[in-house]
Amino acid sequence: MIVQSDSSEPGTILRVRGPLEFKCQLDSTVGSHIQKVISRTFETLRSRVKSESLVFTVCDSPVVVWPNRGKQETLYASPEEITPNTLCKDLQQWIKTDEQESSSKKNAKSKSKKIPTASVINLHLMMEVTKPGPLPALTLNRTVQKHHFLRTTLPMDCVVHTTCNDTIGVACERLLEELLHQLCEMEKVSLQHMKGTTLQVPEPLHFLLPESKGLVTVVYPAGVPDSQLEAHRKELHQRFELPEDRPYFRRANVYRFPNETYRDGYLRNPHLAVTHPSLENGKLYLVQGIYSYHHYMQDRMDDNGWGCAYRSLQTICSWFQQQGYTERPVPTHKEIQQALVDVGDKQGSFVGSRQWIGSIEVQAVLNQLLSVTSKIMFVSQGSELASKGRELANHFITEGTPVMIGGGVLAHTILGVAWSETTGQIRYLILDPHYTGSEDLQVITDKGWCGWKGPDFWDQTAYYNLCLPQRPKTI
Amino acid sequence: MGRGYIVEDSVEGYLSKMCEAGAGPVTGVLIGQSSGQRDFVVTATRTPQREESAGAAGSSLDKEWVTEHARQVSRMLPGGLSVLGVFIISDADPKDMLISLRQLVFAVENLISKDRLWAAADDDITDRIALHVNSKTRKAVCRSLDVRDPKSTAKPADWRYQSGVCSCWATVSCCLEVDLLLALPENRTSIESMEKCLKDGLKAWAHQVEDGVCLIDGKKLPADTELTAGQKRNVRQTFTAQLLLTPDGQRLADGAQQCGGSVSLRGAIHSRAYLHSNKPKVNLAEKLLKRDVVSTVAVRVQMLLEELLTEEEGKGNSKEKHWAEQLSLPRRVLCPVKGHGPVCVCDYQFSDEGLAEVTDRLKEMLDLDAAEQDLDTRQELAAEPADSSGPTEPSVETVQEPKRNTYTGVAMATAAALLATAASLLYLQDD
Predict the structure, then answer these.
(1) Minimal Cα distance from A137: which residue of B?
(2) Which one of A293, A365, B172, B379 has the fewest beta carbons within 10 angstroms of its own beta carbon?
(3) A262 sits in which H/E element
């Protein structure tokens, strides 16, 4: 379901998640029988979603809503003050966020220039098992009959975007529609990928599409890798009128909600916390998408003094992985060295050494490990870099990949340029791999480890090679 | 610091009465609720006579009999009430009786907690009462034992009588639907196999209940909130609970399991818990109610299985490849305890029994004199024969309603003996 997101008015995203139990008995292994039973079970689940026992509980709050109850306000939600006409944004006051508040204030300064994003309200999907009594007591049914018993849980995950005028009544109705629609999608995906009596669990994932198309939810079969789902992705690209030369629907492209932190410890896109320069008639040309900041001393690897190009290469690899071009994790120094040995560029003794690498090696490794081709730009002296504004700007527009630059005795990563076509003024957004400290965004931006540099940053007489990685044309 | 037990006045009269009877030592169990620093003993009940030894000078205490009685009693207690300990009335010296008391207290605790489906909580009180009453002097000597440690010493405890201990106790209750569908393993569809299957299934369901969200009178309250805050002190209160569950998110094998059959448990139960009147908190109400929910279902399933095991096995394992049977579980019937505020005990009535059997059992197990009209049968309706709304079932071969053996002391002995056999059967079968 398409969710409009207007960046001028962020609104609130309501996200409901919860498992639904999927259970059925297959009396025969004939394909058509299996399909019938699976469909029937999904139908039962759809009835459950429409029943009055369905409940949404708002995480970290005492708020509970029975979305299928009639609009008699007293039975619809708890606490009583909440009615179907309560505005969604007013739900925030019920939610306990003491820790979140204090930490967000700390980051507020550094993230002050960030585009305002919608806030997210998380809800749990639950079923009420109590009812007003009295009711008939328990019966036990025992049947003896050979059959296959199929049991799994469906990870329901639905999202709706609301604006400041939307009420809870409206939002919950839309969430219910989403849930029913998601069950239909799950049924389709299950039947399509069923092998014998093995069910691939259908898994909903959310993707944020460009140009205000908003959040889209897609159901993929969990056990099937991206490489086998190309036809599905092609259909999605066509449906949403997206270019068919870059991925939007690979699992790596999944949208990360604001409250979902990365658990691997690396900083993402520290450049977003930096104040950008404004040049007379100048424009910004920045890296697209998400990368991780790799630098000296990380991963308990002491590469201080020799590993800068390796770290720049790692940053680039992290970009390709997070944009969905590869499933390969970011390579270690040893893996990088081994790749160079494998292509015949270095001798076996290279692995485990502390030898430097340059742009050519970076290009070779990107090709060997990720099948990514790169353009090399040669600059005979540092002072010439000031004239490369147009090329760099074009690179960031068409490819948008981080650029590795090596020369003199140093390697750096260029994340963007600020360039004025008329005055020729230029600034470079640099991510410095020579940083040896911890992942502290404040320090990294304050001290310029990620920051804007002028043309005098380069050694004016040394020669430089730049490696400009090209996006593979694939979805 | 010793524990302090606040005991209903009527218990004093009850224990005195048995001092007068003077026919050898009398044993029994004490029932109540433990909390924080104070414990409340609400009622006591003597171990029923064993028919073979009626009248005989039973100088040696029958440990198995006492513990089996305690287990039966604990099944008849709604949430918030539990067996808190054991008493012995005799003319012997309290020090001589301590060893017997200690043995009984531990044996009772072990038997009762063996079949529990819910996990012990950190804030559970683990002290139990070892009470000796001297039949000549009527003097009561109370000690407490920590049942977590078999080597713990008995600590002296306060035993104080008070009137109206539970007159203002609060009641939390709900009516809850159960819907479990479990697979029976291939080639093993016996009752023992069904028993294991049910036990595993109920354990998983008990986890869901434990993790579920509990609303009291329609509200989700913070755990530390006082339940009876802002209410007049001497008003008896009732609360209605609602329970919201979510299935276990853990994904099992995605491939289908091959099974020999299935077992389903469907219907509703009435659950209730009593809370002492000393500023009880929401988390206590939630804990006690959830435990009662799980216990009442588990107890009924156990009772049904006990019945099935005493019948002939042959009927079940017919030569037919496919068959189905439907069995009704007993319904819960409540009985108020006179002079004890809102507190009720309960029993389970099979569909082929009348209320007379229930009052008989209440008399035998809890020494309670109740008339049929005192019983509250309105909380649960008789089980309905199901129409096959579930997966397609083959033609129903037999619709079986197990006959409950009329309870006498002998019958209880048979049950105890057969349970022992069944237990050993489970061990002999390679699962």
Answers:
(1) B383
(2) B379
(3) none
Of A79, A128, A134, the CB nearest to B242: A128
Low-confidence ranges of chain A (pLDDT < 70): 1-9, 71-74, 98-117
A292 and A238, same domain (yes or no): no
Q: Does residue B363 contact residue B369 with C-beta atoms inside 8 Å?
A: yes
Contact (CB<8Å) A147/B262: yes
Bond into A79 cis (ω within 30): yes
Residues B171/B237, Cβ–Cβ less than 8 Å: yes
A3 DSSP β-pair partners: A215
Q: Where does residue A22 rank: exposed (0-12), middle (13-18), buried (19+ CB within 10 A)?
A: buried
Does B407 have pLDDT greater than 60? no
Question: B354 versus B385: which is more confidently predicted?
Answer: B354
Gap between the Cα atoms of B75 and B73, Å rounded: 5
* The residue type at B74: S
CB pair distance less than 8 Å for A134 and B270: yes
What's the DSSP call for residue B154?
P
Residues of B in Cβ contact (< 8 Å) with A146: 186, 258-261, 321
Q: Tell me the shortest Cα–Cα distance from A69 to chain B, in angstroms.
A: 14
What's chain B's average pLDDT? Answer: 83
- Catalogue the active-site residues of A: 308, 432, 434
More confident residue, A113 or B25: B25
Residue A334 confidence (pLDDT): 96
Q: Which alpha helices (DSSP H) does A343-450 contain, by range?
A: 359-370, 389-398, 441-446
Which two three-digit tokens encode residue A110?
């550094």
CATH fold label, B4-162? Cytidine Deaminase; domain 2 (3.40.140)
Which segments of B150-304 are extended strands (E)? 155-156, 158-162, 170-185, 213-216, 238-245, 257-275
User: How does pLDDT run across A106-162, given as a tens digit for each residue?
Assistant: 444 444 334 456 789 999 999 999 999 889 999 999 988 888 998 899 999 999 999
Tokens representing B247 are: 């299935």
CB contact under 8 A, B269 and A137: yes
Residue A261 resides in a domain: no
Contacting B residues, span 325-364, partner chain A, CB-CB under 8 Å: 325-332
Amino acid at A125: L
Q: Does A45 touch chain B (CB under 8 A)?
A: no
Residues forming beta bridges with residue B348, ordered by sequence position: B332
Token pair for residue B222?
Answer: 């913070």
C-alpha A322/C-alpha A317 separation (Å) is: 9
For chain B, give every domain's residue range.
Answer: 4-162, 170-419
Tokens of B296: 């009442």
Closest CA to B283 of B172, B137, B129, B181: B172
DSSP secondary structure letters along B44-78: EEEPPPPSTTTTS---S--HHHHHHHHHHHHHT--
Helix (H, G, I), strand (E, B) or coil at B6: strand
**Pair A238, A274 in one domain:** no
The answer to whether position A409 is within a domain reads yes
pTM: 0.85
Give how far the C-alpha of residue B208 lies from the chain's centroid of Cα atoms, to the nearest Å: 20
pLDDT of residue A364: 97
pLDDT digits (tens, 9 = 90+) for B105-157: 999 999 999 988 888 888 899 999 999 999 888 889 999 999 999 888 999 99
In DSSP terms, which residues pair with A367 in a beta bridge?
A: none
Q: Are the C-beta atoms of A130 and A53 separated by less than 8 Å? A: no
Q: Indicate yes or no: CB of A139 within 8 angstroms of CB of B383.
A: yes
The percent of residues above 70 in pLDDT, for chain B, comes to 81
Domain of A465, in residue numbers: 270-469
Question: By C-alpha distance, which of A302, A208, A317, A210 is closest to A266?
Answer: A317
Position with higher pLDDT, B305 vs B391? B305
Q: Closest Cα to residue A190, out of A50, A48, A324, A36?
A: A36
Of the candidates B262, B117, B197, the residue with the CA atom closest to the CA atom of residue B431 = B197
